[in-house]
Amino acid sequence: MSTFKTIRYAARKLIGDPFLSGIAVLALALGIGLTTTAFSIVYGGIIRGLPFENAGQIMHLEEANPSRDIESMEAPLDDFASWRDQQRSFAHLAAYYQGTVNITGNDGRPERYSGAFTTPSLFSIPRVEPLLGRVFTPDEEGPAAPPVIVLGYRVWQDRFAGDRGVLGEQIRANGRQYTVIGVMPEGFLFPENESLWLPITDNTTIEPRRSGRTVEVVGRLQDGVSMDQAMTEFITISRRLEAQYPVANEGVIPLIKPFTEEFVGPEVIAMLYTMLGAVIGVLLIACANVANLLLARAAARSKEVAIRTALGASRFRIVLELLGESAVLSFVGGILGLGMAYGGVAWFNAELAKSDTPPFWIDIAIDPMVLSFVVITVVLAALVAGLFPALQASGTKVNEVLKDESRGSSGFRLGRFSRGLVVFEVAMSCALLVGAGLMIKSVVQLRDIPFQFATNGILTSRVALFAGDYPDTTGRQQFFEESLRRITQLPRVAAAAYSSAIPASFAGRWAFAIDGQSYQTDRDFPASGRVAVTPAFFDTYRVAPV
Asked: H-helix or E-strand containing 179?
């Protein structure tokens, strides 16, 4: 009998028992659908990574100072310059920081974009050529750098209608005139959802050491160099810097990790893999359910199998036909599960868009890799659910079955394996229920955290003043004082304030001294978060002193 005939025969048999077939297909569809949805999220968010050539070589670098309980911090520009000059592990090393860039074109209409202020080597790391023009050159870095800008594809389309003559045009960015030198291709948002790029103009030799701007550092490893080898070299460089600058660099160590891990985070990665493990457990329960159903079906068909065996059918043929039924069930369940997965991925993307803008490389979709996963899952489900029932049904002794059937009973016993499946299902179900309950409880507790400040009726916004428009401290202070005076006079405003950070956000870590206390070294100074505020800050958030 050909494979096609075997499948057709199995399908006909299953259609003759629609109740059992329906339950089996529904169980497999649920397990495959949930597993495919979870794998799509894990693959798109973690496994696929950056959409660049040899993306596994792209690393994120930062610093830590365990002696001062600082687990992670950006690197100052002077440390980056030392790294760049002394290291050999990375083919390219670049520094950047994110910032808001207000663009004003010839039409006078301002618009805010997310931009990266970067060293020229940033564009060498992803190995992506500009769509138009060029990127920054080494002499376009530092305080004397000419005012040039590279546009992202969306900015080019939105502000310049895709005009290929945009190169050389002057645009006003953050109050300063810049010359457009290049346009990056569609979808290029490296490193963090950027829409345009400007050169860093800060000085890397500022004194005292580590008093200048801090930056994110990204690099591409040399071919054949591992992350551990790079870490070993950078530890050596850090020890050299500590010996050279004992006050500023005491206790500072480098941290190197794959670039995507920095922006997804270990907690999210652990949660996603936990979710994938949980839904695989659901799939195993579904397979156990189907295996039990097929065992019961095989018991009811034991006389038929015995007669066919007596007439000369080989055990291999019997096993193949019974596995065909499992394959048909898994195939139909896989089709329905794939439909569930499409819906699950669409729902997840919709919820993700509501909460925040994910990193540009995260693309949750049912792509060829996910479809390959579905095919593998369907095959494994067919084997797990159908192989033992098929072997059990085909391995009974013909004479015993026929004798038992003549007395109205069956020589085929479900036996310990069936009872073991039931125990497995109950155990897995309990474990999953407990895990799900704990996760739900954690989420509820996170949503119900009582803030010690007002959140209802609070409106926040960001304000940035350009050096070209407000070059001195007096002018900036006058702007803030006058704008705050006008805001507080609005009829529906009860209180208003300026602050360098809003409550519950990262405010930076600052060392301070307590009057009357003496400190032997810099590491002995206490440290805490610091926020600069105007007097009405506490009234605005309805916070009373203790």
From this structure: strand 176-183
